[in-house]
Every structure is written in C-alpha cells, then in structure tokens.
C-alpha cells in the first residue's frame, strides 16, 4: 500500500510518520525547493506535544520547546500586570508541558526524522485524478506520481481541497495584521520563563520564550485588508501603531530585525463537513484553516495525523479508514476553528465593549479560568 503525502510541513510529515507506523509506504512531495516557513514560531500545546510523543518525535519537543512556566497579561499603556500565574497546574492536570518552538527548527527536525533525502522538493501539485483504487498527482514540473491513496497537507490554499469539495473556498479575512519574529531574550521586555501579553485598544503584543535563549514575538493590529506596508517601514509602522505603549513594548520594537520580521494578514476558512473523497483525505490547514488565536493550528494537524494512524490500525481498507478519520475529526476541527474565531473577535476589538469586558475580567483573573479553558481544549484531543 502506498500513500502520496502532499506537503512536507508539520501536517504532512506527521502524517507520513503515522502511516509508516502502520506499515504503509509513503512518498512525500513538497511544493517549494527549500523550506521557508511562514511565521517565526508557534505554540505546541500539550495535546500537540502528546501527539509528537505518540509518533516517536517527543525528543524534538524536549529540545526545541521553550521554558514557558508562567503566563501574564499586562496593560499595554501602563505596563501594569493585569494577571500573572504559574502554568504548573496545567502541567499537573495533563501530564505534559507546553512547548513554544521555532517553526523552522521544528519543520527541519521533523523532515530529518523522516529522512530529508526521502522528501521530493519542488513538486507543486496542479491536478488530481482519482479512481476507486488509485490516485495520481500531477505536478507543475511535468511529472506525476500514483499511489493507492493521497493525504493532502497542502495548506490553506490547497489545490486538492478543491478536488475533494468540487469547488474553491474563499478565505475570510479575520480583520487584523500580525507581525512576528524572533529576538534574543531580554528581561527588560519580559521574564525569560513567561508568556507575556500586553493588551489595549484591541491590539496585542505577545512574547514567548523558545529554545536558544530567544523570544518569539508577535504584534496584532486591527487593520484594513491590503494596506501597503513592507519591511523597510516595519519599525516605523509599529512605532506608530503602538505609540504611547509601555516601555517594554518600545524596547521590543527597537530590538526587532525588519529583515526577519514577517507581516501576515490573518485569514481563516469557514468550517466545512467534507474532509475526504474516497481514497483522498485532507489534513491540517487544507482541512481546517484557522486563525492562530488559540494556538491550535499546528496541534490540530498533529492530532489529524495521530487519528489517521489510529484509523489504519483498525482496518486495512483504505476507504473505510479514511471515512473513519473524517468522522472522528470533523466536529473537533470545526470546534477549534470557531473557538479561534470567537477568541479573535474578542481579542481584536470587533465589539470594543466586549473587548473591554475581557480586559476587566483579566484584572480579576487568578488563572483558574484561563487554565481550565486551555485544559479542556487539550483533553478533547485524541490522546486525552
């Protein structure tokens, strides 16, 4: 049995590993000639870490995961702490720690775990042909590949998704722009073991520790779609958007490297029911493109892969296993996308009164409610 894996990102590589555990041969195809991930880092919460351990890649998380032991929200203008608490109760509840990681390092190490020489780069899919017993992928370089099934982890702009659904889906602008990158840890910005977020005016500045004594940072600003800005103005742009904000925010802006800072207009896709078509399954962003507001994009792709492997452990029949994967995943991923969308709206001032109410709640939050929400999301995953 052979599977064609379309995409060598987190979803594609974890899917290949999960299927290999079930004795299935996989050919992995990646569109780009060299991996250049969008986004400097990402949060792998405990449900994702558990999936990596299940797939035999837990050591990668131990090496790359930053020492994020505490969480705090601070007033964007004054810098005053609104709430601050330890994440140890969350670790105790789910028997695992969260791991904010460099996206580039994570993808690179997952590819190395699989075998870099076994990934075919420069293979951008443009067409799919499907029969009851086979799937053929046609690539823009004129080559093709045929397998018994296809796992499409080809991202939010998925070509295979249009084949599975019989139509293109529109991406929805979430209403804000995100700048992100990496800087050296500086305790004048935030404690080295804490996820720190400054909030105000429907904007966010967030800092997470990752391995290598680095902070992952992001700035969120509600803005119109298509605003013309580029790397040459990033520092001036951020200085303008965060004028009057607290000194740590200004210190962070001064520290960033415009050449390695990403600017992304955040989108998602309204959830849909169909994740499979015969012997083709969508996985990761192709199946459930989400905003990053609850940190579950990478985690949900890892969950997909674990469940896919579990389904093939129960049957050798491709269509039965893939259909079972759809039934086990579609409600979970719809829930995650909509939770992220709801959090996005509250965080970014879609209704400023609702956002102000959230700020007020943070000022009396002791940590229990935030930890409970994260814990419930984690424990709803396939590995508990």
What topology does this entry show?
Elements (H helix, E strand, L loop, with lengths): L1 E5 L3 H12 L3 E5 L11 E4 L1 H9 L3 H7 L5 E6 L5 E6 L1 H7 L4 E4 H12 L4 E2 L4 E6 L4 E5 L4 E4 L1 E4 L6 H7 L6 E13 L9 E7 L2 E8 L3 E9 L11 H8 L5 H9 L6 E7 L7 E2 L2 E3 L14 H18 L3 H30 L4 H13 L3 H12 L5
Parallel strand pairs: 1-2, 1-11, 2-7, 4-13, 11-18
Antiparallel strand pairs: 3-6, 4-5, 8-9, 9-10, 12-15, 12-16, 13-14, 14-15, 17-18
Helix pairs in contact: 1-5, 1-9, 2-3, 2-9, 4-12, 9-10
Cofactor: FAD
EC number: 1.14.13.113
Family: Belongs to the FAD-dependent urate hydroxylase family.
What are the defining features of this structure?
globular; 384 residues; alpha/beta; 38% helix; 7-stranded mixed sheet
Note down, in words, how this protein is organized.
Its cofactor is FAD. This is FAD-dependent urate hydroxylase. Residues 2-337 form the FAD-binding domain. It catalyses: urate + NADH + O2 + H(+) = 5-hydroxyisourate + NAD(+) + H2O. With 384 residues, this protein is of the alpha/beta class. It is 38% helix and 26% strand. The chain has 12 helices and 18 strands. It has helices spanning 10-21, 46-54, 58-64, 88-94, 103-114, 159-165, 234-241, 247-255, 297-314, 318-347, 352-364, 368-379, and strands at 2-6, 25-29, 41-44, 70-75, 81-86, 99-102, 119-120, 125-130, 135-139, 144-147, 149-152, 172-184, 194-200, 203-210, 214-222, 262-268, 276-277, 280-282. It has a 7-stranded mixed sheet, with helices on both faces. It has a 6-stranded mixed sheet with strand order 7-2-1-11-18-17, with helices on both faces. Helix 1 (10-21) runs parallel beside helix 9, helix 2 (46-54) runs parallel beside helix 9 (297-314) and helix 9 runs antiparallel to helix 10. The protein is globular. The model has no long low-confidence stretch (mean pLDDT 97).
């Amino acid at each position: 049995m052979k599977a064609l894996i379309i995409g060598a990102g987190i979803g594609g590589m974890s899917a290949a590993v999960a299927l290999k555990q079930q004795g299935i041969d996989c050919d992995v195809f990646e569109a780009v000639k060299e991996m250049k991930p969008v986004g400097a880092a990402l949060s792998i919460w405990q449900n994702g870490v558990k999936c990596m351990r299940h797939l035999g890649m837990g050591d990668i998380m131990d090496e790359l995961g930053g020492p994020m032991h505490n969480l705090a929200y601070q007033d964007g203008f004054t810098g005053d702490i609104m709430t601050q608490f330890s994440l140890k109760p969350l670790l105790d509840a789910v028997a695992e720690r969260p791991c904010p990681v460099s996206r580039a390092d994570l993808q690179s190490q997952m590819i190395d775990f699989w075998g870099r020489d076994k990934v075919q780069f420069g293979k951008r899919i443009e067409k799919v042909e499907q029969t009851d017993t086979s799937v053929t992928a046609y690539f823009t370089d004129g080559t093709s590949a045929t397998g018994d099934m296809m796992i499409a982890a080809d991202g939010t702009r998925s070509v295979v998704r249009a084949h599975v659904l019989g139509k293109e889906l529109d991406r929805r602008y979430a209403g804000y722009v995100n700048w992100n990158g990496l800087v050296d840890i500086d305790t004048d910005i935030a404690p080295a073991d804490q996820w720190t977020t400054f909030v105000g005016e429907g904007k966010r500045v967030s800092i997470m520790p990752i391995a290598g004594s680095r902070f992952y940072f992001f700035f969120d600003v509600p803005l119109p779609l298509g605003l013309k800005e580029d790397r040459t103005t990033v520092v001036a742009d951020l200085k303008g958007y965060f004028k009057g904000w607290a000194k740590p925010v200004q210190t962070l802006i001064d520290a960033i490297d415009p050449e390695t800072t990403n600017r992304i207009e955040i989108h998602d896709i309204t959830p849909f029911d169909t994740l499979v078509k015969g012997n083709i399954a969508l996985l990761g962003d192709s199946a459930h493109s989400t905003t990053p507001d609850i940190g579950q994009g990478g985690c949900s792709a890892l969950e997909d892969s674990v469940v896919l492997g579990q389904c093939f452990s129960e049957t050798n029949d491709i269509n039965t296993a893939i259909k079972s994967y759809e039934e086990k995943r579609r409600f979970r991923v719809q829930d995650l996308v909509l939770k992220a969308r709801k959090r996005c709206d509250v965080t970014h001032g879609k209704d400023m009164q609702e956002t102000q109410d959230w700020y007020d709640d943070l000022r009396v939050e002791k940590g229990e409610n935030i930890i409970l929400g994260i814990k419930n999301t984690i424990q709803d995953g396939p590995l508990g």
